[in-house]
Amino acid sequence: MSEDLKDFDREERLFSDALRASAEVESFRPLSAGEFTRPRTPGRLAAWGKGIAAAAAAVVVIGGLAFGLSQLGGAAGSASLPAEPASGMGGAAASEAATAAASAESEEDTKYSAGGVRVGEWTELAAPPLSARSEATGAWLDGKFYLFGGQLDPPCPPNASCIAPSKLLRDGASYDPVTGAWQQLADAPVDLSASPPTVVAGRLYYQVGYGSTAGAYAYDAARDRWSRIATPKGGGALVAAGDRLVAINYSDEVAGFDELYDADADAWTRLPDDPLGKSFNRGALWVNGKLLLGAHPLVASPGSEEPSLVQLAELDLDTMRWTKLPTLDVLSGFSAAVGNLVVFPTPGSGDGGEVNNWGRSYPMGGIYDVATGDWAELPDGLPSSEGVRQAWSDASVTGGQVFTSGHLLDPVARTWTELPSPPSGNLEGQAVIAGPDGLLVFGGWDGDAHTAAAHYLPLR
């Protein structure tokens, strides 16, 4: 006989003896189905559940009373019995109360995402069909996470100068968090690394290269097919505008203009000039059905006697008309929007310094309501720990909140939430992709080698 079965027999005898002793001095009643609860001591039950026969034998019947294995708990040889009904409470009421308590316990203990993993806890995923690497690029699209490319060179450390990577990759894969399945995808036609794609109408759009080598590519997820598209001529960066693609020129310091892409004609059309005048640090978001442009006016640098605050304008792509909005007393640009709330995620403030003192302090970031024009400062209490290190971009939206600075910002409640670091730690060059319900982290460099590990953090 195995040691496990010997332990089982010994504990069964102790359990039976205890019940017989109790039966001589106490009155018992049958338990209702609702009073059977999940055990709280998995290690204790492991010894009882080594085999089906052993588990079945754990139900002991004495004098017509059946005790299920699910009532066992505590120290060896003891039984966790139901409490006596409270004064004035009949058996039916006690049964209903026990059922409600068991239901509440079950609900509390099973906060799982749609994919069956516990919310707020990292889960290591099955091995992806991708080799170990860093600086992979990707996005969320139509129910799946997409990953492409990366590099086999060690990533360049923050704030360091490095030679351009030479061991670049083109392969890709998708991950479905509901089914837990990976799928290998068609290789990209060019090397892809670090820069995230823009997602529009079932496609991932990538910009690669600079100047004469610049090009734009589209990945059609439904057909698993890549194609090269016309390159924007105005020098702009790709931005999603609802179901359309635009290119927004970063600065008026160099010749350039904004454009709208026609996917059917594979052609770009110049957008009308915005009403903000000469500006830099230009960026756009799709908010409330319109393209919201944020930019800073060109000022002398150094030597400006006034801060370069954020100017706003919105473009109706149906009428092609701009509307200028009020200038905001904020120094940094925006990065993400939740509903009508636009988040400028940079904490802190600036006053121009000792030489260029502006006479007051201006916030670096805040929250702007496009619908009402209301402005709110970022909440205090940004967690000081690292959270989840982002490989790119200032902010993204997940779980109805803004993922920024490695933490979650709820722009409605105006609260910060600290996220646990991935099980493998925050690695250089790890890919961090935000989906509507959670974060996927893949790859990275630990200082000695790359990894192909992938983890998922469900947030709701």
At a glance:
By secondary structure, the protein is mainly β.
Task: Considering the chains and any ligands shown, give keywords for the structure.
32 strands, 4-stranded antiparallel beta sheet, 2 domains, single chain, 4 helices, Neuraminidase, 11% helix, mainly beta, globular, 460 residues
Q: How many strand elements?
A: 32
Proportion in β-strands: 25-35%
The main sheet orders its strands as: 3-32-31-30
From the 3D structure, determine the CATH topology of the largest domain.
Answer: Neuraminidase
Average pLDDT over all residues: 80
Q: Which structural class fits the helix and strand makeup?
A: mainly beta
Main pleated sheet = 4 strands, antiparallel
Helix content: 10-25%
Total number of helices: 4
If you had to describe this structure to a student in words, what would you say it looks like?
- The protein is mainly beta and 460 residues long.
- It has 2 domains: 3-109, no CATH class; 184-419, Neuraminidase, CATH 2.120.10.
- It has helices at residues 3-23, 42-48, 52-56, 91-109, and strands at residues 60-62, 65-67, 123-124, 137-141, 144-151, 168-176, 181-185, 198-200, 203-208, 215-220, 225-229, 236-241, 244-249, 259-262, 267-270, 279-287, 290-297, 310-316, 321-328, 336-338, 341-344, 349-350, 362-363, 366-369, 375-376, 395-398, 401-404, 407-410, 415-417, 431-434, 438-442, 454-458.
- A hairpin with a 4-residue loop joins β14 and β15.
- The two termini are 47 Å apart.
- Residues 18-90 and 104-110 have low confidence and may be disordered.
